[in-house]
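User: quick one
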Amino acid sequence: MSDVKIEGYELKPGFKGMATDTGSDQTMFKGVQWGKVMMWIFLLSDTFVFSCFLISYMKGRASTVVDWPNTSEVFSLHVGSTPVPLLLIAIMTFVLITSSGTMALAVKYGYEKNRKMCGWLILATAIGGLTFVGMQVFEWSKLIHEGVRPWENPFGAKQFGSYFFMITGFHGFHVSIGVIFLFIFARKVFKGDFDNGKRGFFTTMKSDYVAIEILGLYWHFVDLVWVFIFAFFYLW
Amino acid sequence: MSDEYNQQNTPLEAQSSETMSGSSGTPSKDIDYVRPAEIPEQDLYHGHSFITKWVFCQDAKVIGIQYFLTAVFTGIVGLILSWLMRLQLGYPDLVPFITAEHYYQFVTMHGMIMVVYFLTALFLGGFGNYLIPLMVGARDMVFPYVNMVSFWMFFIAVCVLMASFFVPGGPTGAGWTLYPPQAILPGTPGSNMGITLMLISLSLFVIGFTMGGLNYIITILQARTRGMTLMRMPLTIWGIFTATALAMLAFPALLVSCIMMTLDKMLGTSFFMPAILQAGEVLSYGGGSPVLFQHLFWFFGHPEVYIVALPAFGIVSDLISVHARKNIFGYRMMVWAIVGIGALSFFVWAHHMYVSGMNPWFGFFFATTTLIIAVPTALKVYNWIITLFRANIRMNTVMLFCLGFIVTFVNGGITGIFLGNVAVDIPLSDTYFVIAHFHMVMGIAPLMVIMGAVYHWFPLVTGRMLSEKLGKWHFWFTFLGAYSIYFPMHYLGFIGVPRRYFEMYDSPYVTSATGMNEFITIAALIVGFSQLIFIYNIVTSLKIGKPAGKNPWKANSLEWLTPDVPPTHGNWGEKLPVIHRWPYDFNVPGAKEDFITQTTPPSEVINAEVEKT
Amino acid sequence: MDEIENKETVASTHKIGIYLWIWGLLFVLSFFSYMVDWFAFQGLLRWTLILIFMFLKAGLIMAFFMHLFWERYALVNVLLWPMTAIACFIGLMAAEAKYTVFTRLLYFITGG
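Assistant: Done. Structure below.
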């Protein structure tokens, strides 16, 4: 993973290495499999999608003449009779970061061919993701119950509900897709598909443990987007 | 003081200073040495049924032709729409079917089809899919399955777009820029289903092209054959590669703006909708910002026009060098210019918004960046011209189209400088001057390249040559005709004739512009119909064209060096090619022939004064 | 793909410790972010703290969980330089928002 060796090619460190790699023949990213580069570039594109969403949100919120709702109050949960601001969000952040941690460990154990640990950790990640989506659904239903709609809300500027549902909706959609793939991959790991090099159903390409790292990249991206949403939408 | 002159630096010999530090890991006396392969060969999926060989085919060449044909079909629809528009403008009361609503729908669909579904799909999906694996020495794209899915996503996007012609209310008439709030409010044609289908179609297009784009980028970056460095790739690949990188980063903004506008329409959100009165009734919208849509749209829209232009730049460089038997002048700078234009294209978008009411200080920033981006573009034009200087020019159809490209692109590029300056843009904005400008740079010039490219690569794809005689007729009709259409349009713009107007109403333009409009319409119809010569040429040459054999143009780049012509699945047969040089070794002093292919090892040209590339 | 697979198994994976440390750091930073709201900081202090913690968390996730710390510079640079276009977009849209609210206040409140 970290120590790539290429026959007949000297890997230089730092920027010199970047220049040599870019100027060399065959590949620019030495030792990086196609699937991994694909996921990185897809994530770059997806970063631009979420950036455009968040930039629009920034523009919408900064130019409103109607007051923006107080997010601490809107997103608080009542424990007994005391309102705890952003409690649900804090738990959701905790869950997602934990799932990111289990995923990173799953990738590590995958490369070490430890199928049991890898499989259980992927499953743990999937459960974490599912919990996150569940909590997001709960949050949505709570807010809808309180009268927040995409087109208006009782707390302040109209655009609050619009941006909230759109951005968290897109993020939740990405998490859900990730959860589905996590369950599929957990099954593949337990069945030993990555050891056998069994061909996938859709793409008929041979399976390999790097696929778990690739899925891990996607999952960490989902966590990364949440870091930004948490900071800009809930905290700001 | 030494009088010694280093005899190796003779004036005739251009010395490239690039060292192959990446590939000389092991010192070797063998001058033909090329580093071994880093990764094992990819295993391809070979279809055996008709469906898996011609419909859901994973071979990039078949996918390329599928993209090409679908894009050309949409282009023909766009062409017919342009005839209808010109009929209305030239002869206002001739066709009663063309009402104001229909006219705006034609304007919108013509624009969207031509920019997105025709040009982008043709250059990236059509030429990209066919040429990338061949030119970099790969057997196929890196993800053939995803590549296949990407075409069918594009196909579905086209179907959804065409469906909008047949829904109640018809297609949207908001202009290809789809500005809110008008786009989703009654009063604009197609403000119900039309705009919704358009937005869905665009979203599907973006998803499909993201999939395709991943393939193109990763094949170029990670799947090149032995000896193929980035600086040995033909400029065609550099153009398509940079355009794809732009697509990956610009389409997200389009996707976001489409999603937000769809929500504004379907759910009544107010992302872009301000407080608004409609026929005296206060709508429930409020607080939104129409200018936000414009910023998002043009953050996509400006890179989009470079997505169309950059492949054309790359392809024309290769066409010129092959048919002028001369290396492209300043290859390295051409590469840096392409990359520089691509990077800068993300910082110029609001030059489309000078009169939008955006922050007035933005004009300073964007006019500056716009004029900066003109520099690498002009550099490329100089290099094309210098390439032609004292070259062994073959004045065939391909070369004629290249020359046509240079002339029309210079014309369009210069008018772009006019429009890039804020003060000059204010009277010219939304006039026919703008229409003349972008048709020159985006319509005529890339179209010249496409046609030249078809004449150039037809022998590879089909194994037969197109007729030169018919080709020359086709060229002169197209070139002179297109000039007749768009050159006078600049004058219409100068006198202030507005764009997107159904008719001249009760204005001074009614009398002063009528003759000009008629002339342009006649020219447009003639040019449109003369494309039949092209279609006839293609269809008949498929059967009775002169057999091309291998490498009929005596080119250097890899796509001409396959064992079979047309190339078969897997492209290279048993062994992948090994590259020893760049694709521009034409008329090298000391060489046996006037070209040296990329796969020719140094030991075979030991007496020639080749560039060190 | 077999060659790469063998290289992968032979090559060392990182010790579990580093992942646990980063995991812990992320919790700490999330806790600090939450404290920003709990203590109800306002204005510039609030926004600066939010941004600092956000970038630190994002940086840790990208560097260690997504392995960018160990990847070669070519990949890292290709991924990070496009963010300058986003940064330009952010800056300009912030200015645009200021202008929009200015025109709204000017025309709606003061009557232009």
